[in-house]
């Protein structure tokens, strides 16, 4: 087997590839031959050593993957060699093979291709939790999505549209805004060149209901100021690097709310609820209510270059690494 290894926290270019004997599953475990590993922002943070959970090197990054069951250990029921599965394993997905607990695997519906499945769980589960539980998005509401051409952004557009909301997409380039429009956004804001607060208010006819914010930095305050009566801002991440400090008078005005969404911690504490949530997402994909974008494919050996592209805002939508 081959795997990517982070031998020291720092730049993604320092990642190396290791060759090892193929793994053997222990009792209750399964070896999955990885078809594709989803690339996520958190992977870059683990490699830099700047994530809130710090994993000492050496480790293999990669928080999610999909592939085919190669071998099962003693006592495993429910999955068999040849099954197509996905797993949100947290770390270790940037590899040709992974060993995981059998109960961490989810079978893939026939309608879902393996690369798309590899890049789906983290973004869609985060957004689904945000919009159905933390802030609830209902038909007729207007939702502003920041970083709309990224992984969370495109998932947010898809889920908001499926829930009957109208979506305004904000992103940095015409290409990312075109991706957001293709996903279902009906209005766009080029937030590095246009006034985000003013344009969002105009496009929402004065009643912006929800902001989905995976970006942070200066855009958060502008988006908060754009929210209408009872508006809610979901704090999802800080891709811009700066964690904004907000003045609470902006929350008081218009009876607004600022709501945190920490899907990873929630999923670890609530595994049964997470399995149910992922099931809802996959059912919605199978039924054609959600249509996740097909990810770009890059070779596993390019892991460092792909993470560099992510950190420099060059990726569009989702990307998977193919062993
Ligand atoms: N709370 C949770 O449970 C949870 C779950 C998953 C992810 N997250 C977090 O959500 C954030 C976004 O994740 P993602 O998967 O959507 O990442 P992504 O696919 O890389 O998208 C992030 C977007 O942020 C924008 N951005 C602005 N400034 C940036 C900068 N300096 N560097 C990189 N991107 C920048 C980019 O869009 P523009 O170029 O258009 O500005 C980019 O498309 C990350 O902080 C991640 O850790 C949180």
Layout of strands and helices, then pairs:
Elements: E1 2-5, E2 16-19, E3 29-38, H1 41-48, E4 64-72, E5 84-87, E6 97-101, E7 106-107, H2 114-118, H3 121-134, E8 142-146, H4 151-162, E9 166-171, H5 174-183, E10 187-190, H6 196-203, E11 208-213, H7 218-226, E12 227-235, H8 249-252, E13 257-260, H9 263-269, H10 271-286, E14 296-299, H11 303-311, E15 319-322
Parallel strand pairs: 8-9, 8-11, 9-10, 11-12, 12-13, 14-15
Antiparallel strand pairs: 1-2, 3-4, 3-6, 3-15, 4-5, 5-7
Bound molecules: NADP nicotinamide-adenine-dinucleotide phosphate.
NADP nicotinamide-adenine-dinucleotide phosphate (NAP) binds next to α1, α3, α4, α9 and α11.
Fraction of residues in β-strands: 15-25%
CATH class of the largest domain: Alpha Beta
Distance between the termini: 9 Å
> N-to-C SSE series?
EEEHEEEEHHEHEHEHEHEHEHHEHE
What is the arithmetic mean of pLDDT? 97
Low-pLDDT segments, ≥5 res:
none
- Cα radius of gyration in angstroms: 20 Å
Brief rundown of the structure:
The protein is an alpha/beta fold. It has helices at 41-48, 114-118, 121-134, 151-162, 174-183, 196-203, 218-226, 249-252, 263-269, 271-286, 303-311, and strands at residues 2-5, 16-19, 29-38, 64-72, 84-87, 97-101, 106-107, 142-146, 166-171, 187-190, 208-213, 227-235, 257-260, 296-299, 319-322. Helix 3 packs across helix 4 (151-162), helix 3 (121-134) crosses helix 10 and helix 6 (196-203) runs parallel beside helix 7 (218-226).
């Amino acid at each position: 087997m081959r795997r990517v290894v982070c031998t020291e926290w720092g730049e993604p270019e320092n990642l190396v590839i290791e060759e090892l004997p193929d793994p053997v599953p222990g009792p209750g475990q399964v070896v999955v031959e990885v078809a594709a590993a989803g690339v996520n922002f958190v992977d870059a943070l683990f490699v830099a050593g700047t994530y809130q959970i710090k994993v000492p090197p050496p480790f293999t990054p990669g928080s999610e993957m999909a592939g085919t069951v190669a071998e099962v250990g003693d006592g495993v029921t429910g999955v068999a060699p040849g099954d197509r599965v996905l797993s949100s394993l947290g770390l270790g997905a940037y590899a040709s093979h992974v060993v995981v607990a059998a109960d961490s695997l989810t079978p893939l519906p026939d309608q879902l291709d393996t690369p798309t499945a590899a890049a789906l769980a983290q973004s869609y589960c985060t957004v689904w939790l945000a919009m159905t539980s933390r802030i609830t998005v209902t038909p007729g509401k207007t939702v502003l999505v920041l970083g709309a051409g990224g992984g969370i952004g495109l998932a947010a557009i898809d889920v908001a549209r499926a829930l009957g909301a109208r979506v305004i997409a904000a992103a940095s380039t015409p290409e990312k805004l075109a991706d957001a429009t293709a996903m279902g956004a009906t209005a766009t804001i080029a937030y590095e060149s246009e006034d985000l607060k003013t344009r969002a208010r105009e496009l929402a006819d004065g009643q912006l209901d929800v902001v989905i914010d995976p970006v942070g930095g200066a855009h958060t305050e502008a988006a908060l100021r754009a929210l209408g009566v009872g508006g809610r801002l979901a704090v999802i991440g800080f891709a811009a690097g700066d964690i904004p400090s907000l003045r609470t008078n902006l929350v008081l005005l218009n009876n607004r709310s600022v709501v945190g969404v920490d899907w990873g911690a929630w999923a670890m504490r609530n595994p049964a609820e997470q399995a149910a949530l992922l099931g809802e997402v996959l059912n919605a994909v199978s039924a054609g209510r959600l249509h996740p974008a097909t990810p770009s494919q890059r070779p596993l050996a390019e892991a460092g270059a792909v993470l560099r592209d992510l950190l420099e805002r060059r990726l569009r939508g989702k990307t998977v690494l193919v062993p």
